[in-house]
Amino acid sequence: MNLAAVDRYISKVITSESQTFPFPEDTKLKVGVDLGTAYIVIVVLDEKDNPIACEKRAARVLRDGVVVDYVGACSIVKELKAKLEERIGTELTECAIAMPAGTESSVKTHMYVVENSGMRVIRILDEPTAANAIYKITDGAIVDIGGGTTGLAIFKDGKVIRTEDEATGGYHLSLVLAGSMEITLDEAEQIKMNYARHQEILPVIRPVIEKMAAITKKYIDPEETKTVYLCGGTCCMTNIEKIFEKQLGITTVKATDPFLVTPTGIAVNCVPETEQ
Prior knowledge:
- The protein is an alpha/beta fold and 276 residues long.
- The chain has two domains: 3-127 and 260-275, ATPase, nucleotide binding domain (Nucleotidyltransferase, domain 5, 2-Layer Sandwich), CATH 3.30.420; 132-254, Nucleotidyltransferase, domain 5 (2-Layer Sandwich).
- It has nine helices and twelve strands.
- The chain has helices at 3-15, 70-88, 107-115, 127-135, 170-181, 185-192, 198-219, 240-248, 261-268; strands at residues 30-35, 39-45, 51-58, 62-63, 66-67, 94-99, 120-126, 140-145, 150-156, 159-166, 227-231, 251-254.
- The strands form three sheets. The protein has a five-stranded mixed beta sheet with strand order 3-2-1-6-7, sandwiched between helices. Strands 10-9-8-11-12 form a five-stranded mixed beta sheet, with helices on both faces. A two-stranded antiparallel ribbon has the order 4-5.
- The protein is globular, with a radius of gyration of 18 Å.
- The chain starts with a helix and ends in an 8-residue tail after the last helix.
- The model has no long low-confidence stretch (mean pLDDT 93).
């Protein structure tokens, strides 16, 4: 993985949250919708995967990758889509989505949420595989830690040979932090997102991070997997890769800002599977 190139690319995606980039009139836009436990994100790229615009909103309409507030999820996706269409001046008609591994039974609900906004879902992926559209690894494991789950995909010779997902994510970090500090969940979320307080809270949340590493360790063979690549919002936690590396005994790396890796990878894959 060319980490510097990934960081430059994701930096431009982050910029597209506040700045709309121009694109040729005849380009076919690629849209990725990420229905996450903590955030819903929509990323728009041009057909050459250049970032155009991005919108996100904090939400608690999913739990462990499953929609628990259908009306709320539909409303947020519609809102974000409308904002993007106003920004770029054109209608968004097609998109790709991604699911945590093991939540295949919820695929139709995710599709209904997105299609309720007027977009047609043309591609469905698992989240770590979507992230690999950005990381572009051929061998190793991508671990995507979102708000509700820790999911991984193991790659060998550029192909996915295994996917797994278990229910431990950023939401669980916040629960532990809120209980320890006797504060609300919202207050815990704000503290967790404050990089200046990461060293302060690390002793409290470290056992949960170690559980995420233990989930990963169950499914990887250190003889076969030489590097683990982290992504997902929870991996924004300072030095989380060092904790994983110590627990796994395997080199562990992440992008400087891993939050938008998966949503952007979903957008990159917004083409029919037959065209891949």
